[in-house]
Amino acid sequence: MHTTTIIGLEVHVQLQTRTKAFCGCTTAFNPDQPNVQTCPVCLGLPGSLPVLNREAFRLAVKTALALNCSISPYTKWDRKQYYYPDLPKGYQISQYDLPFSQDGFVDLEAIESEKESQPARRVGIIRAHLEEDAGKNSHDETGHGADSRVDLNRAGTPLVEIVSQPDLRSPAEARRYLEELRLLLTYLEVSDCNMQEGSLRCDANVNLHIHTDDGHKIATPIVEVKNLNSFRNVELALVYEEQRQLEQWRKTGQKLGDVAKETRGFDAARGVTFAQRGKEEAADYRYFPDPDLIPVVVAPEFLDEVRASLCEFPADRRRRLAAAFQLSDYDASVIVGQGRALADYYEEVAQLCGDGKQASNWVTQDVLRELNERNLEIGQFPLRASVLGNLLGRITAKQITIKSAREVFAALLAEHQHPAVVAASHIDQLIAERGLALVTDQGAIDTAIADVLARNPKIVTDFRGGKQGAIGPLVGQVMKTVKGADPAAVRQALADAIGRLP
Q1: 66 lies in some domain
Q2: How confident is the model at residue 434 (pLDDT cuts 50, 70, 90)?
Q3: Is 60 exceeded by the pLDDT of residue 194?
Q4: How many folded domains does the chain comprise?
Q5: 123/174 Cα distance (integer angstroms)
Q6: Which residues, 6 or more positions from 273, have their beta carbon under 8 angstroms from its beta carbon?
Q7: Measured distance CA(77)–CA(74) in Å, rounded
C-alpha cells in the first residue's frame, strides 16, 4: 500500500488600495480602534449602493496576468449568502460563474541541494476572482470574562482569491508554492502580503489517494483547513491532516462513504486540526447576481495598459542574474527572494564593482546582517548601492583587501545612520588615514617574511613536515607587520620562502 497526498490551495490576498472594494472607507490596518472604518455601504445598510473600486480591479487583473490567466472580456458580481457575525450584510460580494480570470499556472523550479530535493512542478490556477473581505472575530475563552467580539474595520476590503488546481503533492511543496506566490505578488506591488496583519491567508483542501496492494485506489473525503496565516502553519496543518486521514481510513476500512466532507480549523499551539462544520457546496451559498453592481466589460486597451505595468517576474530575474553575474542558483534565489528593492540594490552594486560574486557575498552576508541587526529595510540602509559598489570596486582593482574593505565599511556605517551620499574622495581618505591601501612593495613583504620565519622555527618545521595549516599564524604575523598586504599573495610568498630554506 502507498498513498498520494492531493492538495489544492485557496489563497486570499488583500490588494494594496487606499480604500475598500465598493466604498470610500480606508483599508489601513487599525486593530487598536475597532469598528471605526465603516460606512453604510460596507455595513450593508438599507438604501446604500456599492461602487466598484477601479484600482482594486486593475490590481486584480495585474495579478491574474502574472499568473498566466486568461482575462474574461465580460465579468459580473454575485452575492454569496452566509450568516456569520463578521459579515454585517449577511452576504459577501464575490464572483461565481463568470470570474474575471481563469486557467493560469505557476511554475515551481526544481530544488536539488544537501538539505532538500523537490521536483519541478507546474501548479494550475483554476481562477482568480475579486471579492470583499469579512470582518474579524476574536474569542476570549479564558477566565470569567470569556466573550466574543467582532471588528468590522476589515469588512469590504478588496481581496483576490487565487484558487489552485489540486496539483500539489506534499506539505513542503504547498509551502514552496505559497512562498513563490507571495514573492511574485510583492514584486508586482499588488499587496504587501503581510501575513501577521491578514493580508495573505490560505485555505488548504487536502485528501489522500490510497493505493491498496490489490490494485484499488480509494480517495479519502476532502477536508478544507481554514484561515491559515503563516507558511509554517500551512505545512504543519497539512502534515497533521495526512496522518489523521490515513489513521481514520485504517479505522473505517473502505466505509469512507459514511464520512462527510468537512471544514476544519488549525490549533497552532497544539499542532492539530479540529472539526468546525460540514463543508459547504456552491448551492449552500445561494449565489445570485448582485443587483446593485453593473457587469464589467474589459477593453483591450485596458489590458494593454495593465500588461505594460508588469515588472520582471522573480523566476525570470533569478535566471537572468545567475547568467549575467555567474551566480549559483542558490545565490540568485537568496538575492531575489529578499524582495525587489534588495535585488535592485544588488544589481547596481554588481555593475559598479564589476564582480557579481563579490557583490553577492557582501549583499547577502554583510548588508543583510546589518539590516537585520538594525531592523531596517534596504531603502533605509545608510550606504547606498553606489557607495558599496565604489568600495567593492577597489577590491576588484586590487587597491585594498577584503579585510580592509570591511574596516572601511564599518567606519562608514559608524559615520552615517541614514542613507547618505559618500564621495569617493572620502573613501580614499579613510583608506589613507588607516593605512589600508594594498601593499605591493615586495621588498617590504620579503623583509617581514624573513623576520617571521626567523622567529618561528617550530612552525616552519611543522609546515615542512606536512602540516599545511601551520602556515596560518605566519600569514597573520606578516599581515600585522605589512598592513594592507594581500593575504593570498603573502601565503604563497611564505610557502615559497620556506621551500627555499636549506
Answers
A1: yes
A2: confident
A3: yes
A4: 3
A5: 10
A6: 223, 225, 237, 240, 241, 244, 264, 265, 266, 267
A7: 11
Tell me which of 433, 456, 474 is where a domain ends: 433
The residues facing 274 across adjacent strands are 265
pLDDT of residue 119: 87
Residues 69, 65: Cα–Cα separation, whole Å: 5
The answer to whether residues 378 and 345 touch, using CB atoms and an 8 Å cutoff, is yes
- The mean of the pLDDT values for the chain is 90
Residue holding cell 472607507? 25
Q: Which residues neighbour 426 within 8 Å (Cβ) at sequence distance 6 or greater?
A: none
Reported pTM: 0.85
Structure confidence at residue 257 (pLDDT): 52
Asked if residue 57 belongs to a domain, the reply is yes
Q: In whole angstroms, what is the distance from residue 297 CA to residue 15 CA?
A: 21
Q: Are residues 61 and 160 in the same domain?
A: yes
Determine the 3-state secondary structure of 473 from DSSP: helix
Range of the domain at 147: 8-205+279-301
> Which residue, of 378, 408, 433, is where some domain finishes?
433
| Residue pLDDT, tens place only, 412-430 | 999 998 888 888 899 999 9
